[in-house]
Design a protein that fits this description.
The protein is built from eight helices and 18 strands. With 330 residues, the chain is of the alpha/beta class. Bound molecules: aspartic acid.
């Protein structure tokens, strides 16, 4: 029987009502006790790295999760991580960069309703996460939610209430869990014996969403506080000129002092192509900004934090950004 480490972090799955609303109250062992059937799938050890609403999770916790996986890597055949749904896509993305090329599966799951509730999705999700974690084909970092198996850095929370909370953005789900079995649509393989673990991130990444007519007068000032900016532009990657070329000038300032500028789109699907319109092409040609193409915003942000944790060399940053990790960029 495979040995799986359950790493709990909090989230709705572990929550109970308090006088101020739902908050994580249950530890990993208690969560596990709600799904005794898991005992027939795996030999499970349960640990806890934090017990927080995922709204309160950030890079400090990502590093703790990665360190917990690294410390236990040789002792277990796989890892299941319970996590709140709100920022699960960020954490799963971050772990896909902090623990690369893992032959052993790292599986995130959570739920829209707490595990003690009569009509909860938690028990099914947790069970399915273990079904995937013990499957011989499982490797790398994924989210298993409802019946879907989604690559960690392709996932996004697209529904706030339905049990079908996560989508795989611009890449197919790699498989589904049906009747307790993994049905694979996309093959995944890892040749490396051991993963590459990373323990440095640089969180100085800012995301700016454009709205029509806004010139973001503080855009230049922001570079005092951040090393990279991700601009959620319009359409396929278009930035307005307006009358004073405010964006072009601000970008020139960022690039001029060695900072990273990434242009992505605020359109939910199909990514950017800045070569299409003058409004994108001119900026890309002039300043050589990085383009996010089909990456999710969660992947863009966490990939930049991982890359900037290791280098501030512009060419290395660009090269690493465009180098696919799992299937984050195509
Ligand atoms: N606020 C919760 C969290 O992200 C939502 C959930 O888990 O579904 O921790």
């Amino acid at each position: 029987m495979k040995k799986i480490l359950l790493i709990a972090t909090g989230g709705t799955i572990a929550s109970r009502p308090t006088e101020n609303g739902l908050a994580p109250q249950m530890d990993s062992a208690e969560i596990l006790s709600f799904v005794p059937e898991i005992k027939s799938l795996a030999d499970v050890t349960a640990v806890q790295v934090c017990n927080l609403d995922s709204t309160n999770l950030y890079y400090v916790h990502w590093l703790k999760i990665a360190a917990c996986i690294e410390e236990n890597y040789d002792r277990y055949d796989g890892f299941v991580i319970t996590h709140g749904t709100d920022t699960m896509a960020y954490t799963a993305s971050a772990i896909s960069y902090l623990v690369q090329n893992s032959r052993k599966p790292i599986v995130f799951t959570g739920s829209q309703k707490s595990i003690y509730m009569r009509d909860t999705d938690a028990r099914n999700n947790l069970y399915n996460a273990f079904v995937f974690a013990v499957d011989p084909s499982a490797c790398l970092v994924h989210i298993v939610f409802e019946d879907k198996i989604i690559i960690g850095n392709r996932a996004r929370k697209t529904r706030t209430k339905s049990y079908n909370a996560f989508s795989s953005v611009d890449f197919p789900e790699v498989g589904v869990i049906r009747d307790g079995r993994v049905i694979r649509y996309v093959e995944e393989k890892v040749a490396a014996e051991r993963p590459d673990f990373y323990s440095q991130v640089n969180p100085r990444v800012f995301v700016l969403k454009l709205i029509p007519g806004e010139k973001f007068l503080l855009l230049s000032d922001l570079k005092k506080y951040y090393d990279a900016i991700v601009i959620e532009s319009f359409g396929v990657g278009n930035l307005p000129f307006y009358e004073d070329e405010c964006f072009a000038k601000a970008i020139e300032g960022w690039i001029g002092c060695g900072k990273t500028v990434v242009v992505t789109t605020q359109v939910p699907h199909e990514g950017s192509d800045m070569s299409v319109y003058e409004t994108g092409n001119a900026i890309k040609k002039r300043y050589g900004v990085i383009e996010a193409y089909d990456m999710t915003i969660e992947a863009v942000v966490t990939k930049l934090m991982w890359i900037l944790g290791g280098t501030n060399d512009a060419e290395k940053i660009r090269k690493l950004f465009y180098t696919p990790v799992q299937k984050d960029i195509i």
